[in-house]
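A reminder before we start the practical. When you read a complex entry, don't treat the lines as separate problems. The point of joint prediction is that each chain is placed relative to the others, so the output describes one connected object in space. Small molecules and nucleic acid strands, if listed, are placed in the same frame. In the example below there are two entries. Take a minute to note the order of the lines before looking further.
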Amino acid sequence: MSGVKLYGSPMSTCTARVLLCLEEVGAEYELVPVSTLTGEQKSPAHLARNPFGQIPALEDGDLVLFESRAISKYVLRKYKESGTDLLKEGNLAESAMVEVWLEAESQQYNPAISPIVYQSLVVPKMGGGTPDQAIIDSSLEKFKKVLEVYEARLSKSKYLAGDFFSLADLSHFPYTRYLMVTPYASVFESYPHVKAWWEDITSRPAFKKVSAGMLGS
Amino acid sequence: MAIKVYGLPQSNNALRAMAALNEKELEYELCPVDLQSGAHKKPEFLALNPFGQIPVVQDGDDIIFESRAISRYIATKYKESGADLLPVNSAKFETWLQVESSQFYPAISELNFELLFKPMFGMTTDMSNVEKQAEKLSAVLDVYEAHLAKNKYVAGEVFTLADLNHMPEIFLLLKSPKAELITSKPHVKAWWEDISARPAWKKTAASIPL
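Here is the predicted structure of the whole assembly.
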């Protein structure tokens, strides 16, 4: 099988999500840098790949995809013969749970965690600005409520979708990885099952490799 | 045991689940959840959805929450019933499912909340937020306009779940003062006119008390 081209940056959360999938399945790929520092994601060349002007985008022959969660599914399906099954599409009940917790990541977890990461890391590093503590504080309150739900879930289930590691767990990695380099990492101390889950998934070789390409490694 | 939908007939996200059930020609029981009295935060409901939100679908032993997970579950489990919402497991299909979720939904749902739901609950619409979200949505819909000029439906030539997931919010926006965000874009408008003419959608729309 010939390789794919991933356009993005190893430091970008959404690019990292796809890199993790590529690493998990052992795919052959080329990471083509697209710099958000220079605004390259809004260049005509990149807009032709992703009309929303964001990274990542994936090229596989004539096929072009964008939206990291869609690209992730594409990669996992394309390489399912690798033996790594993170979607469980052969089992309706299991795949339904993968979808539920993928949606929870996207609709519950991400809106709470991303303002904390954005204010603490992106605002000072990319814009040279000062973090808005009011936004951080209100996001932290929301995030703790989300973590309570995750704590209860992970007390009953080894991984989010069940007793198997899946795309649902993987999808949480990039933003959580960045929370861990902010002063707010300690929030996980109050949620022992979430903390244990985090330590488990980050011990995977794919996670170590992708983490090394991100800031604060 | 019939499929149960825990939600409300005017809820954008519950409608996503009900629209899918109607496309699949499935019978279901709508179990209203009294949000005003905080029923969604009580233990009986949290046992169904620990995030305390509607909708939740119960089908036999399966309890599913998150409306996009629900609509996909219905489309998958009942693939042979009614319209096939997953005809091709294509890259374009998955991409535009995500586009609805990450690009389209944030701006349009906030617009609908400001313009339609806040007045219903006696809250004041934040007009500067309305203008901000309208600008965001307009930029997103420019991309849709270009896409729908080359594609009959968002995933290609056939109606799929990716189109369906957009429908409740568009229906609501068309009842608001910002309807022109949709109607001013010829291909977006034509796409809406096509998909909203589907008999299953007409059944869903008729059940919305707005």
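Discuss with your neighbour: The mean pLDDT of chain B is 96. What might explain this?
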